User: What shape does this take?
Amino acid sequence: MEKAKKIASSVGAACARAGIAIGRLFAKIWKNPKGRRGLIMVGIVVLAALLAPILTPYDLHEYNVTEGLQQPSFSHWLGTDKNGVDIMTQVLYGARISLIIGITTGISVTLLGAIMGIMSAYFGKVLSVTILNLINVLLVVPTLPLMMVLSNISSSYVMMILIFTLFGWCGTARMIRAQVLSIVNMNYVRAAELSGASKSYIMFRHIMPAVAHLLIMNCALSCAGFMVAEAGLSFIGLGDASVMSWGKILVAAERDAFTSGLWAWVLAPGVAIFFTVFGFMQVGYALEEIFNPRVKRKKTSSKDSRSATESADAIFASMEDLPLEDAKTLKEAYLKGETH
Assistant: This one.
């Protein structure tokens, strides 16, 4: 009983620490202009997907052919398709599938790539060679033909997520492996090894937190990439025909929207995809600026150079009595650091 209480308390403490860390991370992202913009954009899409039954009075499977191909109006803001289904309703409910596929696949690919990358760099030469050869094989496998073949077996979006995860972790693993090869030589890792800690403990306790910033940034950008990939595959007919997504809306719009003049039928899912992907990418760029000191140094140095130039302009602009050539010479010497 006491052991169970200790385990429960340790798990609760770990969850509390994780919650605090996530809260601090969101606070840092919110302070960044790009991150704030991205969080707002992604938050709008997530809220629209969750509140779809409240935001629209129509049913996604409510067909009425007599009201098909209607132009945008107060009752149907984006019009209706050929079956009389409200296009706005399709966009709102389609956001759920697109977000689920993008976020689920992004997290799965990031975790699998991180584990495989750390194992290939830290768990011995045999495992390293095996994982690297596996990566080389998976990189040359044509994903699209395999997706078309497997869609005949199962056309569900679960199969799409599995295929994306199976072939999408290789790039993340190579990136993490390169980073871990430098981390394993750090003093705190050597000290943990000398103290008798197991490799699995060091992997999750020391190495994984050291590459967490890369994983978070990669996850945000991967979510955007897989949302675009889902829309592309759905557009060519791959995926579950019984489930609505933004790619499925584009498939139906491509057949009838142009002949009927319903431009909103095409623009609405396209703008939704762009809006969501742009939001995820803004969050990814913000995370890169937060965790990558090189980006910070570049920004600081560019600001310092601009401020030095502006101050020099202000100083020498006040020297109206000096000849023009002398002012230019003094300004160049000042910027080069030859005068004080």
Observations:
- Residues 87-122 form the longest helix (36 residues).
